[in-house]
Amino acid sequence: MAAYDLSLRVWRGDSDSGDLQDYTVGVEEGMVVLDALHRLQQTQAPDLAVRWNCKAGKCGSCSAEVNGRPRLTCMTRLNLFAPTDTVTVTPLRTFPVIRDLVTDVSYNYEKAAQVPAFAPGAPAGDDGHHRMKQSDVDRVQEFRTCIECFLCQTVCHVIRDHEENKPVFAGPRLMIRYAELEMHPLDTHDRRDLLRGRAGIGYCNITKCCTEVCPEHISITDNAIIPLKERVVDTAYDPITRLGNRILRRRR
Amino acid sequence: MSTSERHTYDVVVIGAGGAGLRAALEAHEQGARVAVVCKSLLGKAHTVMAEGGIAAAMGNVWPEDNWQTHFRDTMRGGKMLNQWQMARIHAEEAPARVWELEEWGAVFDRTPDGRILQRDFGGHRFARLAHVGDRTGLELIRTLQNRLISKRIDVFMECTVLRLLTVPGAADRPGAGRASDEPEALSAPARERSSARVAGRIAGAFAYWRESGTFVRFDAPAVVLATGGIGKSYQVTSNSWEYTGDGHALALWAGAALMDMEFVQFHPTGMVWPPSVKGILVTEGVRGDGGVLLNSEGRRFMFDYIPPVFAAETADSEEEADRWYTDKKTARRPPELLPRDEVARAINAEIKAGRGSPHGGVHLDIASRRDPEYIRRRLPSMYHQFTELADVDITREPMEVGPTCHYVMGGIKVDPSTAAATVPGLFAAGECAAGMHGSNRLGGNSLSDLLVFGRRAGLHAARYAQSLPAHKRAVADDAQIDATAAAALAPFAAALTPGSAQAGTASAEGTASSAGGTTSARDSAGTSVSPSHPPENPYQLQNDIQDVMQRLVGIIRTESELVRALKEIETLRSRARHVAVVGHRQYNPGWHLALDLGSLLTVAECITTAALARRESRGGHTRDDYPSADPAFATLNHVLRLRDGRLVLTTEPLPAMPPELAALFEDAGAESRADRGAPAGGKGS
């Protein structure tokens, strides 16, 4: 693939108004969508607002929707598209636009603040330090590869077009945060009530869109949300457990 | 005038990477009111890019390991130019900092018996790096971030600090970090240095919100700088856009001293192809886990570049080097795991000699040496990075790699124990602080540095602030605020030349207020738009700064080029006075970059000035005209300050090491073999 002129269509605007604007940007082999946006910034639109940091798929800052699909623009190669294709870049739809491709992602930070902190038990080792088997932390480590790009949050239909669900649903990113803590061998908190209540795990109807867009290939639905749902169901809805709880409560 | 938003804290931490977050947590723990101010969103700081691990002599894999050995490795890696007190504190405290992270929720890879696993890295005698695959930095930052959130510490995200606020020195200044010989007055300040008013003491910081472009003022007696490095002053770098040397510049302008600025680490292995990813880091873990460097002839060339000082502990045959991965008792380390400065120079030399790979690097091969399953498990993000960005499957073919600007050893001169800078109330930790790594940093010592000295900076900043009762806390005069605000808005006064910008309209919004600024206000960071000079594009200026540094102040330096670099930096500085931005103040990257240019120019001048003065080669500073280390420079640090608006370089003697530590370095080679308990049948001679 040699150098060519890319037709780039970028949403420009702010919280009041905005629309798609067409640009032609010279691009070369190996470039990613973020490179094209940077070139646009350097040559034609110096005030184009784009959020980015590492440009290596590790920080999760440069999320946007490319031809309608949520992606990290730094990891989206232009050779994914034909040179004649128009590449359209729009801001993450689930979050309010600040300007151009930059959105207000504070929803995610608010939800994160509601998660009770990690609370480890006493160390098992005679040296005063913890012991954990690798096999016991493998699944926790999968969740901890999350780079907080919020692509799973933007694609999740529970909140994507339903502003009213945001107060009652934490979203896939936070579900794996809960899962990571719930499945941590050392953690002593029980977050199941919280999951059922404030985090709203029941809203998820496992369409797996989040898993599909995850740039870290975390099996969000299968490995985190479904096991969490099972745990919640076991305590909250299992008839025998409920009966037992009722009897115990009566005794108390 | 410029701001209505104003906050008061005990400690303001600038930067939300590992050092900043650790400092904030500690200051909070001490009962101080703390704010973290950072340029990006929380959790996106450059620390997430750290791959290999955290160096700490926990002895989980090699019980023989101890802080003395770690100390020794660190000092030798730094070519003995480190502040020994810092290297000692670091080696002693690093294990506790790692265990503490585990207590806070970090999930490190495990040994078979359930302890924290440690991996091999360049320059470390034992497998010493606590890690999580090749994404250790992410684990570190997420752990600290979650704890910060749970402690409800205030975070000002996407908020860039323009100036530190100071007040003239007072007689009753508390002890930490006394400024010894700062000038009493500065006149006719030049350009971005003008706010280097007399080093009094810290009174806060002045910043702008990236989102809205409005200003915000922090009143605080203590400021911790944890702003990271300077990589964006070079073209090929592993660093993100944030690494513009802000902390270095803010400290210098506030009257503090910088040290060791000539020492810049070029990581030996950055990606070289395709061009758009040039510089992105390839972790040293690839070599730690068995990868080797090959030239175009297929030769493992590192055997040709073993320096005498490391010869005794480096393998001299491929057989021995390969055996080392499983047999550390009788085999010595592969030369691929020499300290980074050695490897980077070797790669540079091979490429120059015409034995490079097709795209101007060398080959890094792990595919032919480890099975695919192992590679994917140990190096998942490298696998991912090369598949996605370069169409290279690292389990099947070698990577192409070359040196990339990665880290600056130099930085703000600090007290080894308290992390206090030379201005009272100012503290610094992490990459923006100097002294810990000497002339070259060992891999893995950065994350441990962040934790050890981040904590100390937070601790001592809190104590300092708490030692000042409310009525003794100084409040900066409004003139500083007004001058800085006016200068920051000046770039709006000019539109870009027609043709160079179509989008957005040049708006004079907010610039009217700058008209009444004082002389110093106009000089400070500012733009004076004159009709005779065409407006300058900030992107072009940044590009030109990077070009000068890459071409003239890169891996290999020489006097004539350094002198030319200084001249070109001066030219760039005068061009930067005419920088102009289009659009308005709301989330405007062109404007943000225009405001970063001052820091970039300042650090560029600092690096070049110090590099010119050091007429020898040592660690991250290689001079073509003085190719070897010179004993005369072996005990000197270069210290930079602003005096009368000019950069002044002085030399300061390195503190002498006490005899019991100095003894660690006697007969290093023989000792290293004895320590490892190697049978005599090994490589004895």
From TrEMBL, chain A:
Organism: Protofrankia coriariae
Requisite cofactors: [4Fe-4S] cluster; [3Fe-4S] cluster; [2Fe-2S] cluster
Pfam families per record: Fer2_3, Fer4_8
Keyword Transmembrane: no
Protein name per UniProt: Fumarate reductase
Ranges for domain 2Fe-2S ferredoxin-type: 6-93
Keyword line: 2Fe-2S, 4Fe-4S, Iron, Iron-sulfur, Metal-binding, Oxidoreductase
Protein family per UniProt: Belongs to the succinate dehydrogenase/fumarate reductase iron-sulfur protein family.
Recorded metabolic or biological pathway in which this protein acts: Carbohydrate metabolism; tricarboxylic acid cycle
InterPro entries per the UniProt record, alphabetical: 2Fe-2S_ferredoxin-like_sf, 2Fe-2S_ferredoxin-type, 2Fe2S_fd_BS, 4Fe4S_Fe-S-bd, Beta-grasp_dom_sf, Helical_ferredxn, SDH/FRD_Iron-Sulfur, Succ_DH/fum_Rdtase_Fe-S
Automatic annotation (TrEMBL), chain B:
Fumarate reductase/succinate dehydrogenase flavoprotein-like C-terminal domain sequence ranges: 543-631
Transmembrane segments: none
Start-end of Low complexity biased regions: 503-528
Keywords, comma-separated and alphabetical: Flavoprotein, Oxidoreductase
Source taxon at top rank: Bacteria
The keyword Oxidoreductase appears for this protein: yes
Residue ranges of domain FAD-dependent oxidoreductase 2 FAD-binding in the record: 10-447
GO MF annotation, one: succinate dehydrogenase (quinone) activity
UniProt key word Secreted: no
EC number: 1.3.5.1
Top EC category: oxidoreductase
A Pfam family: Succ_DH_flav_C
Location of region: Disordered: 172-192, 503-540, 666-685
Protein name: Succinate dehydrogenase
